[in-house]
C-alpha cells in the first residue's frame, strides 16, 4: 500500500492528537503508583479520563497520592483508587488482582512499575587490583540483596502479569475495545548499559532481566494469538525517590546545562521532565502496532556512556 493509499484509507479525525492518544474510559493498573514515576503515570492517565488503580506496600503514600489528586484534579472523568498490597509476594498479587476484579470487568493497561534499588558496593572505592576488587565486591554485598532485587524487579512482574491476564483479555471480549489490554514493564537504561555504574551489578542485571522477561512475554502471547502487547520502558534520570537529582527548574542556563552534562553524563544537559515521561507512556500504551520493544528515554545518557569511563 502506498503512503497516499494508506492516508486515504483512514478517517482524518483519527490522526488528531485527541484521538491518537485517547484513554478516556480505560481501566489502568499502575503498581508502585503512590510515589515517583508511578504516581506521575497514574496522574497522567487519570487526568485523561482513565480509572486508575495504584498499589504499594505502604498505605500512607497511597492515600496521600489519592488525596493530592482529588484536591487538584481537573474536570475530567478519571480517578485514582488505592489498594494496599505487597507485590513481592504471590499472596499480595492475588489480593490486589482480586480487589480489582471485584470492581472491574476488564483492564486496558497494566503498568508494572514497582521496584527496589538496594544499593551496592562501590567498585571504584577500593584498590583496583584483582585482590582489592575481590574483597570489595565479595564482602560488600549479600546473596539476599541479589535475591530481593530479582524477586521485586523481575519475578513479581512475571506473576503480576499472569494474575491480570484474564482481565487484560477481557478488554476486547467484554469491554468491546479494538484490542485487548496491553502491558508495560518498567526497566531502566541501567538494564542496557554495559557499565555497572560504579558497581550496582545486582540492580543492572535485574533490569536487564526485566527486558528479557518482556521480550519473552510478548513472544509467547503473540504465538498464542492473544493480542496482548508487552513493551518495556527504559527511563534514565528523572527526579524520584530512587534518584536524587536536581529538577529541570535548576538547569535552565547554559552553564547549568554544561555542569549537568559533566556531572551526570547526559548530553541534553538536564534530567527528564514529567511531560517527557507522560508523552512516552501514552505513545507506548496506545500504539497498537508495538509489542516486544524496549523504549529508551534517557536524554542520550546511553550514547555518552559508550565512551565515558567515569559513568
Automatic annotation (TrEMBL):
<dbReference type="InterPro" id="IPR036291">
    <property type="entry name" value="NAD(P)-bd_dom_sf"/>
</dbReference>
<keyword id="KW-0560">Oxidoreductase</keyword>
<dbReference type="GO" id="GO:0016491">
    <property type="term" value="F:oxidoreductase activity"/>
</dbReference>
<dbReference type="Pfam" id="PF00106">
    <property type="entry name" value="adh_short"/>
</dbReference>
<protein>
    <recommendedName>
        <fullName>Short-chain dehydrogenase</fullName>
    </recommendedName>
</protein>
<dbReference type="InterPro" id="IPR020904">
    <property type="entry name" value="Sc_DH/Rdtase_CS"/>
</dbReference>
<dbReference type="InterPro" id="IPR052178">
    <property type="entry name" value="Sec_Metab_Biosynth_SDR"/>
</dbReference>
<comment type="similarity">
    <text>Belongs to the short-chain dehydrogenases/reductases (SDR) family.</text>
</comment>
<dbReference type="InterPro" id="IPR002347">
    <property type="entry name" value="SDR_fam"/>
</dbReference>
<keyword id="KW-0521">NADP</keyword>
Amino acid at each position: 500500500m502506498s503512503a497516499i493509499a494508506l492516508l486515504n484509507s483512514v478517517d482524518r479525525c483519527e490522526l488528531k492528537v485527541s484521538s491518537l492518544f485517547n484513554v478516556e474510559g480505560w481501566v489502568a493498573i499502575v503498581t508502585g503508583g503512590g510515589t515517583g514515576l508511578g504516581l506521575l503515570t497514574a496522574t497522567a492517565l487519570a487526568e485523561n479520563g482513565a480509572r486508575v488503580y495504584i498499589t504499594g506496600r505502604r498505605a500512607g503514600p497511597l492515600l496521600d497520592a489519592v488525596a493530592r489528586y482529588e484536591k487538584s484534579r481537573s474536570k475530567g472523568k478519571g480517578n485514582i483508587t488505592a489498594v494496599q498490597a505487597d507485590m513481592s509476594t504471590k499472596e499480595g498479587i492475588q489480593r490486589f488482582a482480586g480487589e480489582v476484579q471485584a470492581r472491574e470487568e476488564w483492564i486496558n493497561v497494566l503498568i508494572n512499575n514497582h521496584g527496589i534499588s538496594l544499593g551496592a558496593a562501590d567498585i571504584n572505592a577500593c584498590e583496583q587490583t584483582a585482590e582489592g576488587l575481590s574483597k570489595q565486591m565479595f564482602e560488600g554485598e549479600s546473596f539476599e540483596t541479589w535475591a530481593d532485587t530479582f524477586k521485586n524487579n523481575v519475578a513479581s512482574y512475571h506473576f503480576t502479569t499472569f494474575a491480570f491476564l484474564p482481565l487484560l483479555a477481557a478488554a476486547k471480549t467484554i469491554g468491546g475495545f479494538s484490542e485487548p489490554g496491553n502491558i508495560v514493564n518498567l526497566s531502566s537504561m541501567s538494564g542496557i548499559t554495559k557499565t555497572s555504574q560504579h558497581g550496582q551489578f545486582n540492580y543492572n542485571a535485574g533490569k536487564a532481566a526485566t527486558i528479557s522477561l518482556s521480550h519473552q512475554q510478548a513472544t509467547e502471547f503473540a504465538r498464542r494469538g492473544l493480542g496482548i502487547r508487552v513493551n518495556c520502558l527504559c527511563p534514565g534520570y528523572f527526579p524520584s525517590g530512587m534518584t536524587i537529582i536536581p529538577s529541570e527548574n535548576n538547569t535552565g542556563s547554559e552553564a547549568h546545562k554544561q555542569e549537568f552534562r559533566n556531572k551526570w553524563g547526559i548530553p541534553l544537559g538536564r534530567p527528564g521532565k514529567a511531560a517527557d515521561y507522560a508523552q512516552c507512556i501514552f505513545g507506548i500504551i496506545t500504539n497498537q502496532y508495538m509489542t516486544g520493544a524496549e523504549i529508551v528515554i534517557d536524554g542520550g545518557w546511553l550514547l555518552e556512556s559508550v565512551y565515558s569511563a567515569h559513568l
